[in-house]
């Protein structure tokens, strides 16, 4: 059914970037409509930061952003910085607090972030149409024809594509924006999951499920260390998880995507040197040389890890008196304790991923306005673009900044 409704600025996707784009365009006087395919807007916002919404980070630098051209972020961040974002949210009612540079709403509720955004959307008279999935965008002479799955056609002067990527499709972002962008002539860098748990191929995983330790993980490709991160690491039945692993996962995912086998190397004792660890073992074994080897490690290492670590070190006699451990065996054990190498064979699926790496090539987008260089009056906002950030509030900051700018320029030009 053709409907001759004409929308001035139409935002496809009511996520973090789409909501802020709508607010910024409407504040400049534009008549704005959000088309959202889910039954309500902002579903992903509710899931962010484990329900607390890590809305930004006090220390945003280019190093935390990835893609073919991370410098692309300067255009948006120069016009809508972290300070401006915090001020924007403060004016909406979100007082913030900072925990290790990560910014959270004082309420500790992601729902409060969505509530204030929706309140402002309402106040500004922005139209929200939910259950509206856009399946095709046809650029005409001066307008866009938007085809909805529900066999409805709408017209718009300006379109902002804010459909997100492919991560967590259960929250709305199912990658359909990439198909829309490609059909409009844009290049999409093949997406792969980032900020995602890693799959290991090791026979002991079932036995270690749930074991946690505070250590250091490094990601390696061809024996070259690409990045290291410290924090709580968790073994699962499929592999490994925890904040340091999520932080390293983009590099692993990228290597896998290129057909390579990356490795993770774990250090269970990053706070002390190899030599100190060696001395520590020898001192322990010196106290009671008759103690069974496996029991001699109780109190030092999680008990469920002990048999696995000894077996990984090639020590089969777990109960031999610790005083009889040979130098060669001690060296092998030290290697596992400080540099335990495990091959990464995959990642969890898109439904577990928090972010999409890849997306619409930024060389085809004006960094100052977020307008397409291919189709005039078409804008992009958020994760649909080939920009992704580390864990820590960087992805939402990208969504807020790029959304604000896309909204501003779509309403001003
Ligand atoms: C579990 C989880 C926790 C996270 N926690 C944090 C955190 O604490 N801090 C942080 O910085 N980042 C976090 N992120 C990442 C962050 O949420 C995203 O980067 C950000 O939400 C991206 O915003 P966006 O607007 O680009 O896309 P999205 O928020 O994904 O929104 C896209 C919207 O577009 C809609 N849509 C898609 N296609 C269509 C279509 N064809 N027609 C109509 N509508 C469409 C979708 O339904 C969706 O509502 C987290 C992500 C997840 C999954």
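^ Assign residues to that structure.
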């Amino acid at each position: 059914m053709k409907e001759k409704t004409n929308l001035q600025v139409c935002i496809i996707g009511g996520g973090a970037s789409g909501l802020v784009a709508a607010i910024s365009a409407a504040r400049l006087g534009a008549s704005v409509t959000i088309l959202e395919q889910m039954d309500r807007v902002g579903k992903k916002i509710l899931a962010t930061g484990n329900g607390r919404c890590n809305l930004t980070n006090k220390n945003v630098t280019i190093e935390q952003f990835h893609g073919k051209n991370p410098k692309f972020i300067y255009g948006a961040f120069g016009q809508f910085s972290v300070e401006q974002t915090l001020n924007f949210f403060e004016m909406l009612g979100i007082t913030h607090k900072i925990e290790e540079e990560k910014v959270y709403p004082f309420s500790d509720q992601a729902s409060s972030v969505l509530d204030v955004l929706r309140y402002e959307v309402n106040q500004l008279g922005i139209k929200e149409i939910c259950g509206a999935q856009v399946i095709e965008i046809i650029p005409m002479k001066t307008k866009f024809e938007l085809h909805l799955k529900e066999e409805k056609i709408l017209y718009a002067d300006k379109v902002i594509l804010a459909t997100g990527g492919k991560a967590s499709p259960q929250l709305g972002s199912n990658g359909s924006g990439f198909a829309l962008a490609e059909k409009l002539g844009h290049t999409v860098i093949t997406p792969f999951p980032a900020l995602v748990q890693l799959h290991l191929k090791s026979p002991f995983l079932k036995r270690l499920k749930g074991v946690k330790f505070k250590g250091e993980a490094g990601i390696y490709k061809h024996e070259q260390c690409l990045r290291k991160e410290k924090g709580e690491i968790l073994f699962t039945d499929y592999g490994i998880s925890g904040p340091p692993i999520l932080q390293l996962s983009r590099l692993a995912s990228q290597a896998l995507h290129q057909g390579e086998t990356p490795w993770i190397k774990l250090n269970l004792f990053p706070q002390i040197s190899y030599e100190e660890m060696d001395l520590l073992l020898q001192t322990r074994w010196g106290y009671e040389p008759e103690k069974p080897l496996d029991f001699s490690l109780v109190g030092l290492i999680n008990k469920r890890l002990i048999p696995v670590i000894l077996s990984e070190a090639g020590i089969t006699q777990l109960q031999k008196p610790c005083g009889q451990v040979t130098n060669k065996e001690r060296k092998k054990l030290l290697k596992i304790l400080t540099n335990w190498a495990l091959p990464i064979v995959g990642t969890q699926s898109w439904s577990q991923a928090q972010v999409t790496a890849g997306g619409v090539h930024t060389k085809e987008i004006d960094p100052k306005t977020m307008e397409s260089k291919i189709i005039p009056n078409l804008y992009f906002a958020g994760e649909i673009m080939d920009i992704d950030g580390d864990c820590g509030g960087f992805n939402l900051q990208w969504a807020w900044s790029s959304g604000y700018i896309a909204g501003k320029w779509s309403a001003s030009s």
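The chain has two domains: 2-193+357-412, 197-347.
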